[in-house]
Amino acid sequence: MAGLMGRVTTLFKVKANKVLDKAEDPGETLDYSYTKQLELLQKTKRGVADVVTAKKRLQLQESKLQESVVKLDGQARQALAANREDLARTALERKALIQGQLQGLDTQIAQLEQQQQQLVDTEQRLAAKVEAFRTQKEVVKAQYSAAEAQVRIGEATSGLGEEMGDVSLALQRAQDKTDQMQARAAAVDELVSSGAVADLDAPGTTDLDRQISALSADSQVDAELARLKGELGAAPAAGQIAPAPAADAPPAAEQPAAPEEEGGAS
Amino acid sequence: MIVRIMEEGQYRLSDDLLGELNQLDNQVAAAVSAGDDAAFSAGFQQLLAFVRTHGTPVANDELVTSDHVLPHAETTLADARSTFSGHGALAG
Q: How far apart are CA B81 and CA B92, in angstroms?
């Protein structure tokens, strides 16, 4: 088998030659190629912008997932405090899954960061080469006939054609990678918002949310009750009792819910 | 001689180094035909490192054609294989 380098060189040269191959009239070639260069430069700038957009999206997703982790952690605690280990387990399972997604995201964001840097370098290199080409072009055009200028600047043209071929391939590859990450991000969004992360029989993540918030509503009511009882039980001598709810508040006599249930076996 | 590493840029190397460069390149090609992933990764990175350490980067505003072209640093064994079989990104 021939070397990898020889094979790649041959294929690459074919590709690079195609880049500036189009102009028929040698007199127009130089200006034509300059237009193509500027186009490619624009495309490269857009490529950088696309990567930045993709990166921002993943960063946003990351912070949302981090919020979910905090929230689920809190829910697990609430559930445990209310002796609902089943709910706590569900919350923790979901939290673990989201943490798994978070780990993958870190890597992807780092990759996009690297890709962004690489494309910025590419853009700068291409811009410098385009500018160098423009200068050379102006010099030879001023000194020679169009056809001769074309010959004189031949090496610069093919050197630039090579750069442009490389940049085009790099842009294509960057685009493919960015698309893949966007697709994956969309899938994760879907996964999280549908709540399908952990329990398959619950149609929405709202189910866990609802149960937890029912718990927290319960405990809030309990806390409120305790507070009211406390207020009523305390001596009103200081005149601290608020004026308005006095009518609503029943005299502190009945205990609505005993802490121990009769039927509950332990 | 001028060697391009795709997506990275061009390097200028002494012509005397062509023998060594070819030798490293042949090792990579052998790994490709053997389908040896580990040997490919090691050999390919060694080849790139050789160019980077023995070459000086061509200035951004210099326009020259390359004598040799190497694929980008993230190239996998599968990518290299498709280059040989004519189905890679370059083949289009």
A: 15
Residues of A in contact with B92 (CB under 8 A): 15
Q: Quote ipTM for the complex.
A: 0.91
Distance from the B73 Cα atom to the nearest Cα atom in chain A, whole angstroms? 12
Please tell me the pTM assigned to this model: 0.72
Task: Report yes or no on A211 lying in a domain.
Answer: no
List the single best residue of A4, A14, A51 to mutate versus B (max B Cβ within 10 A).
A4
CB pairs under 8 A between A and B: 99
Q: Is A86 exposed, middle or buried, given 0-12, 13-18 or 19+ CB atoms closer than 10 A?
A: exposed
Using a CB–CB cutoff of 8 Å, tell me whether A115 touches chain B. no
**Residue contact A169–B83, C-beta within 8 A:** no
Distance of CA B1 to the CA centre of its chain: 14
The whole-angstrom distance between B64's CA and the closest CA on chain A is 4
What secondary structure letter does DSSP report for B69? E
Of the segments A57-71, A135-149, B45-59, which one has the largest average pLDDT value? B45-59
Q: Is A122 in the B-facing interface, judged by CB distances under 8 Å?
A: yes
Containing structural domain, residue A168: 164-193
Q: Indicate the number of domains in chain A.
A: 2
Residues A25 and A150 grouped into a single domain: yes
Please write the tens of the pLDDT for every residue from A233-252.
Answer: 765 554 455 555 544 545 55
Q: Rounded to whole angstroms, what are the CA distances from A189 to A71, A98, A176?
A: 17, 11, 20
Dist CA B45 CA B51 (whole Å) = 10
* Pair A43, A128 in one domain: yes
Distance from CA of B90 to the nearest CA of A (A): 6
Closest CB to B65 among A124, A162, A169: A162
Alpha helices for chain A (secondary structure H):
4-19, 26-81, 85-143, 146-152, 154-194, 206-233
| Rounded Cα gap, residues B78 and A139, in angstroms | 46
* Distance of alpha carbon B42 from the chain centroid: 13
Q: Does A116 touch chain B (CB under 8 A)?
A: no
